[in-house]
Amino acid sequence: RGKRRGSMEKKMKSLQSNPLVLNWTTQILDVLSIYKLNKSIKVPSNPLVMERVLEVLLKRLHNPDKNPPLRIGIIGGSVTHGTGCGWNSLGLNLKGTRRMCHFPYPERLEHIINYIFMGEKYSGEKINKRNVVVVKNMAIAGTNSIVMRHLLEFNLWPDNESGPQDYDIIILSLGSNDGQGTFLPDMFTSEQKIIQILQNKRPCSDLPLVAMVEDNFMDATNTDHQTFRYHRDMVTASSWEGAMAISHGDILRDHLYHTNLSDTTIWNNNLHPGMEFHCGVALVLTWSLMNGLIKSCWDAKLMVEHDNPIEPRYGIPPPILEEKKNYTEYYTQWRTEQKERELICSQQHGFPQKTKGIKNSTTTGDNNTTQAVTNSQCAYSWLASKFNQATKEQVQHAVSSVATLIDGWVATGYPVKKPRRTFEATKKNASFTIQLENLRLSNINQMMIMYIKSYGNKWKNSQLLVEIYRGKNITATTINKINTGNDTVALSNNNTLILPTTIEWKVLSTVQLSGLHNSTTSVNYIEKIDLGNNLEKGDILQATFTLTDGAVFQINGLAVCNIVH
């Protein structure tokens, strides 16, 4: 992979001198006028948060040996992942990049920002001890905000080498799937919840900066103004929860509707746009972040909260917006939670106060590593993604390591290119059973299944039956007398008779899932199953997954957890 990436970087450098590319670069910069770039910022970043981002950058520039780079994590779907980003209108033959490419906009964003701060010292290499910023593309194809919310609730961060608390900026680029109009009310709630979860991962810090991005121009593929409803929801959720909101989609609308819908300078009419689109998104994100950094130098110092010794200086995000609540209810809940957070973080920042009655107030003495306010724990989990179970072998091991039966299910697919790795039923009546012995956690109360819904004859009638059981060991009985009918005979010489241990089984839940939907794209869905308060430490959890109809079903993640709300 390293050699392939190196050759790709050399190829991209050679393209920079290509007259076609130089001419097109001039055109795209002409399209991205200052007016359009300013218009893309729908909700500006909080200056207090951006001030902390600037401090990370300046420390890195001053002494890169002792200070880490700015860490940006980007969460998204297949567009962010890079599907189709090798397509271009310039006629460039980017071999091996027509379906997937190494330079979707997260990678381009990293290149641009590093070049801004490092100039000619920037080598273009991904792994460089002197790089000012590191951007990690953690996109999972077919993912929307509902799916991502549940993954975060089940501690399934799309990168098993890090967590949300390890990033200074987290960009949510889920607009292409959120904007398709399915489950809009739940989507709006999930968008807010994601922001809260990410901010709470560093509860006593102004960081991370969370930014929602409307990356794509979905007008061409949606009807009934679904995209605009997403746009409004994104802006409302970001403004309410204290996140930043950026709309590359608005720049596309402004340009295409005012000029020519067939103009391919920054977009092509495709659900997965090509190289021009990805360059445009990277430039817009760079502008938005740099603009926030420059403004924060002055704006932050003018805020009355600037000298607040306890972070987050601006306070916590408000409760989730709900139709049935009035402003008094919001205020009461908000103030109560704010006071609790202040008590927790006062210890963190060296201001001892009593914290009696405050749950989950564990701190470690470091802004960046303070545990989240809510801390869910999982007894078992896996996720088929680029930085988790990335290969079919890893997916197979994740299941087989706890399986008692696998019949007709197998891990298939590739880490990046299609078909992507998944755990798939390959025949009728395929079945597998997992069994978690001697649970080490108490109060296991949720199971999460991440699975694919798709379309076409292959998925016709696809149905999965999930049956979940609790097994409880019945304590072995020791006796020293035997009933022989009419008489009770004592065992001599202190001999004892030990009856064998038995397991008492109880059905906890039965769920039927469909693998078919009406959309013409393949999308991840989440099924969250409530297990109640039936499982205790030492119990056994068993789950059987059976294909009851159809010929295919795909599972991309499983988790069994104690979810704390």
Distinctive features:
alpha+beta, 565 residues, 6-stranded antiparallel beta sheet, 6-stranded mixed beta sheet, 14 helices, 22% strand, 21 strands
Number of helices: 14
Lateral strand order in the biggest sheet: 1-6-5-4-2-3
Broad structural category: alpha+beta
Shape: globular
Mean pLDDT over all positions: 84
Unreliable segments (pLDDT under 50, ≥5 consecutive)? 95-100, 354-372
Q: State the major sheet.
A: 6 strands, mixed
Radius of gyration: 27 Å
Distance between the termini: 41 Å
Q: Strand percentage, roughly?
A: 15-25%
Give the total of beta strands. 21
Name the helicity range.
Answer: 25-40%
What is the strand and helix layout of this fold?
Layout: H1 2-15, H2 19-31, H3 34-40, E1 41-43, H4 47-62, E2 70-76, H5 78-81, H6 105-118, E3 133-137, H7 145-153, E4 169-173, H8 175-178, H9 184-200, E5 209-214, H10 226-241, E6 244-247, H11 248-258, H12 275-299, H13 327-348, E7 377-383, H14 392-400, E8 403-407, E9 409-412, E10 422-425, E11 431-436, E12 446-453, E13 463-474, E14 478-479, E15 481-483, E16 488-490, E17 497-498, E18 502-514, E19 523-530, E20 540-549, E21 553-562
Parallel strand pairs: 2-3, 2-4, 4-5, 5-6
Antiparallel strand pairs: 1-6, 7-21, 8-11, 9-10, 10-21, 11-20, 12-19, 12-21, 13-18, 13-20, 14-17, 15-16
Helix pairs in contact: 3-11, 4-12, 6-12, 7-9, 9-10
